[in-house]
Amino acid sequence: MKIKRYTGTSSREILQRMRRELGADAVILSNREIVGGVEIVAAIDFEEVKSALGRTPAGPRAAAAAAPRAAAAPARPAASAPALPPAGGAPSVPAEMARLFAEMADLRRLLQSGGPAPALPPQQASLIESGFSPAFVQACAREFPGPDALKAYLRAHLPLAADPLAGGGAHAFIGPTGVGKTTTIAKLAARQVLRHGADAVALITLDTYRIGGVEQLKIYGRILGVPVAVARGADELARHLAAFSGRRHVFIDSIGLSPRDERLKEQLSWLHGLDAQVGNVLVMTGGMTKPFYQALSKSYEDLDMAGCVITKLDESGAPGAALEWLMERALPLWFCTDGQGVPEDIRAADAGYLARLFPAAGAEGAAAPVYPFSSPRGMPLAMQGT
Hints:
The chain is of the alpha/beta class and about 375 residues long. It contains 14 helices and eleven strands.
């Protein structure tokens, strides 16, 4: 028996390779999922199997044709086949091989059909390539058939906050390193300064570990004309919050650390003790996989999150997984950022904007996503180029 092992990202891809290399008589001995895809073991010669069964069918096709009958009538095994062992024991070789032959016959019919599996509509295929799961795409198409299905589904199921900072208050921006927490705070602070004046805003940083972390926020503070305080512990953070209690907005910049870093747990404990005073906002980039977001949420599961900011949408090729994860968690999306410009490259999220990140595939002349800036280019750019 010639046995060959195949691995690939999908069963369809592997079946096509098997048919080219082994022909239509190839059968599958095993099929299992592995990290990153699927593994299939296929065979082309049945002499050893026929010997184990004690049968002499006319050929591989006859053996495969007899298998469904053997699987469908287990109460009447062939007289030459040994009896099955008692319950709890391992199945006999002939019975196990009969089951395998039944599966092989089904898969062989798939191979012999000659045609690939039906292709998804272009729009659905595009959404899957953009990070959404097939289950999400199918649910979206069922609930809202038509070209605007994604926008309608996001409007119905994704919690969106139109103006989450309208009531003021203190907010801590939390997330892993490199997601743009400091830049996001600068954008939001600049907008509130333009709206309410410098006396309405204050900044606090907990980032005393990263080289230049404190200085980066102080530069933004000097440009905006707002105070910047440094907190090195829970007591110091509480004192700064009390000192800035008369300010409409207080933005807290946290440090990004690995989930396994003990310093992250320490810093989160500072915020955990201030739940009544501080709203926590999760900051994460688009374009990662759902397992990444699930692992991220475990890092901050002890904190109540008031909302989320998705950053770097201009750099993310597949932000679908982030939106799908937010819908599963019912976590409100507050803002999206799509550039480094301060304060213009940030906007409150809305379904229309998000749907435009996923252009309809298959449309003639379809182009890459356009990331509309959240404000006119004529707006004062307090920190352009900083």
